[in-house]
Amino acid sequence: xxxxxxxxxxxxxxxxxxLALFLLFPPLYQGLGLNICSPVWGWxxxxxxxxxxxxxxxxxxxxxxxxxxxxxESLLRFIAAxxxxxxxxxxxxxxxxxxxxxxxxxxxxxxMIGLPKELGLPHSALLCDRHS
Length: 132
What we know:
Oligomer: single chain
Number of helices: 6
């Protein structure tokens, strides 16, 4: 079965939704060693993840027309990795942040490499929303 970006984008949106729900409940993430200084910050990130979840799921339905949203999400994934990995290793966020950051890095790479390949579009077209 060949790899397709459409289901990958959909399931990464579902993954974001799961993370959003997880961050709504401090006892859950604290139980896994994730140390967020205040529940409000977890709820703020949960809201952000909820929005990106919806954006990814909707983008997966019309991937060619909405691919730039997914491409920009790859940049957000890279920023998340740059924040989570060092905070997990050297800060007080908890070691669980390291695999989460590595997961973001991997998903971002799949988006950034897979979208141009599958859609036959250059990076500049995806960055600037020129998909025709």
